[in-house]
Amino acid sequence: MNFEIERMSNEFTRYHLNKEGELDWPFRPMINHFTAPDIGGPHDHPWGFTSLILEGSLKAVVYKIEEDGSWSKEVTEYKKGDCYSITAEHIHEIVELPEGVMTANKGDFIIKGIQGEFYPCKPDIFEKSYELVD
C-alpha cells in the first residue's frame, strides 16, 4: 500500500494511507501520531471524522454550539481500542496525553520529544521519518 508521511508540527505526524487511491475504498484512512497536546488550542474541521485509538490514550474537550447559541463542552478520555466520532459542527482540542505504560521492544529507537518526553519508535517508521546527517 502506498502512503505518505506529513509532519504537521513537532507534536503531530500524519500518515496518509491509500494516498494514490490504489485500493477501491470510499475513504482515505490516516494515522495520526501525537506526542503532545494541541498547542494551537480549540479548532474545527470542515469535515467530520472517526478515530480509533491504536496505542496510548488522550483526553479531549469537545465544544458544541447549541441551537440557542450557547456553548457546551464535554471532557472525555479515550483509551487504546476506543473509537469515537466528531462531527464538522464540533470544535475540539486534545488537552492531555496521559503517557501510561509505553513499551519499547528490542530494536526499537527511543526518541526524546521537544518537551523532554520519551517514546519508542519502530525501526521501519524511524527510517521513513528521519534521515541520517553527517
Q: What attributes characterize this protein structure?
A:
1 helix, three-stranded antiparallel beta sheet, 10 strands, single chain, mainly beta, 134 residues
Model description:
With 134 residues, the chain is mainly beta. It has a domain at 37-101. It has 1 helix and 10 strands; from the N terminus they run ββββββββββα. It has a 3-stranded antiparallel beta sheet with strand order 1-2-3, with no helix packed on it. A hairpin with a 2-residue loop joins β1 and β2 (12-17). It is globular and about 60 Å long. The chain starts with a strand and ends in a 5-residue tail after the last helix.
Model regions low in confidence, pLDDT < 50 over at least 5 residues: none
The coarse silhouette is globular
Strand order of the largest sheet: 1-2-3
DSSP helical segment count:
1
Q: What kind of assembly state do the chains in view correspond to?
A: single chain
Find the structural class using helix and strand composition. mainly beta
Mean pLDDT across all amino acids: 80
Order of helices and strands: EEEEEEEEEEH
Number of strands: 10
